Amino acid sequence: MVFASPHSGSHYPPDLMSKTILSDLMVRSSEDAFVDSLFDCAPEFGARFIKAAMPRAYVDLNRSPTELDPALIEGVRRQGHNPRVASGLGVIPRVVANGRAIYRGKLPMAEVQHRLERYWHPYHRQLQQMLDQAYRYHGQAVLIDCHSMPHEAVESVARAGAKRPDIVLGDRFGAAAAASVVDRVEEAFVAQGFRVARNTPFAGAYIAQAYGKPTRGQHAVQVELDRALYMDEKLIRPNANFSAVQAAIRAAIAKIACIGQERMPLAAE
């Protein structure tokens, strides 16, 4: 089992803050704040854990390095239609939450390449190494890709007539993980009182697509947690329920980690 938090990075470097036209609080609005603190107990239960230090507003680790935005990056030509890039959410984001622009002008390609080489590629190399190690030892590898979702997204599900979820599991409609794995992950969260939905409104992005290879014994499940459960979204700080949610997530992680531990005797043979 490998748990990852690619969007909780909160180190906002000077080369971002000197260029952004947003306030310190606004530039953090797309950050999966505190998700790392909710899931970083995974190693206590025998799983691996990796988190990003750099924020999503600086480089989005849940995008392909080829998802370059011509509206933001000098010298990039438009190639086909990519809805994520078109909306400003490429690997180097042009906007944060609610479509608010991060910069006033464009970025030079050299700066973009620096961000990719310094942060994007090392993160993904390390993540793949962790999964490879898990596979060699257990014969399978499971990635739990940890994220948070705006409460507004949850409300949109309710307005569409479905039950409002606390957690959305994304397996790209079965393409990224075996049903048996997703069932076990769902059971662990439901046992802690969370309402769980699958694939709506979030089915998984680049990481689930790139690392979810269930026919090869490598599974990826994206976990989206409603931010309103544990934080004040406007002020980006924990709310009064944070400790209770953290304890519930911890208990769920303990059960999810057992998916990997159960294969250890077989691997030892």
Low-confidence stretches: 263-269
Oligomer: single chain
Strand arrangement in the largest pleated sheet: 2-1-3-6-4-5
Helix content: 25-40%
Net shape: globular
Mean pLDDT: 93
Radius of gyration: 18 Å
Continuous helix count: 9
Number of strands: 8
- The first-to-last residue Cα distance is 19 Å
Biggest sheet layout? 6 strands, mixed
Helix and strand sequence: EHHEHHEHEHEHEEEHH
Class by alpha and beta content: alpha/beta
Short description:
The chain has 269 residues and is an alpha/beta fold. The chain has helices at residues 14-17, 35-39, 83-86, 109-138, 151-159, 179-190, 206-211, 242-261, 264-268; strands at 2-5, 48-51, 141-149, 167-170, 196-198, 218-226, 231-232, 237-238.
Descriptive tags:
alpha/beta, 14% strand, two-stranded antiparallel sheet, 35% helix, 269 residues
Structural commentary:
The protein has 269 residues and is α/β, with parallel strands linked by helices. The chain has nine helices and eight strands. A six-stranded mixed sheet has the order 2-1-3-6-4-5. Helix 6 (179-190) runs antiparallel to helix 8 (242-261). It starts with a strand and ends with a helix.
